[in-house]
Amino acid sequence: MPQVHELVRTLFFRHNTSMSSPSITHPIATLEQDLDMKHSVVDTVLTTLELQGMVELLPCLYATCTISVHQSQMSKWSLHPMYPNVMAIAAVSAVQDGYLCTTSFVYNVVEYTHRFASNSTNDASSFIELRRLQQLGIVQYKLSDYAIHFRILKCPSSSDAALDDLAHAIYIHHQAQEARNVHRLEALYQVLSAACHIPLGKSRVGKKQPSDATVDPLNAAIEAYFEDNGGTRTAVEEGNDDWLRTPLTPAETLAIQAATTRLLQDDRVACRLVSAQSITRILHGLSSPQFPSDDWRDHPLWAKFAAMPFPNVRAVVHDVVTDHKKNQTAMTGDDTNVCIDNQGKNQEAR
Fold it and tell me: Which domain of life is it from (predicted)?
């Protein structure tokens, strides 16, 4: 899954040369948009890395602080003890509005804490002081960019192969977990279905009770939900397998190829690093952070192939996307954004 590979690179590779930093933040909204990955999936990957002893998860926080100061208050702000510290790490910009000028200082909260606050009390005191300055009308400040916050404990090799191996291991692990969750969901459906269709008979005391023969299927369904059946397949699961194994017709394959090519030419797709998984979601009518249903439901290709098995559609999309990325690389000579997931290309979950 390309998104998992890119997430691992983001978490480790880009910070391999700055391991002296006690902790790291990444805005959640940025990760969701750049990787087309939901926050819950990012949390799942981070939790796995924490269980493996590679990272320590810290409470999420607002990572960016923006201080705005009007020109008339700059002399007071520049004399404050916080001013040189903020200037050392902030991106400074000025906006002229007629005769008025407002200067903005944008900095990372965690970086400020690492460099200028020796403990959590000092960290809190900086915000208390900013709040005091705001009440006095000297500055205005706001916090933004809600972010994941973690500390790297053990960094893998910076080579692409090592990072890809780690990402692949994480993906395979969670693929198995998702398959088990789907199996449990199917078992739960069987429990509810069996409970709804149990006929009632009269007992000796005149009350209606289910017979032992009719309760047995329900008990078996409940046992299947709570116990691993060791690979035993139910009739429903075997029927699903037959549906998944049904090959696409040549006409269906050509239609999916044409739809994928059309989506790759759409401005909203062409300007991003989009995986086969994301495009298949569009064709199946499944929303994602990059492609929400509110923005895409009126598109003629939205949910066009929802009736076809997701893995089968994705296999065709994968080939088209791979060829497209190879052609882009050949034209630009830049392969940094090419991430092809050949491993288990027909095994992706939605």
Answer: Eukaryota
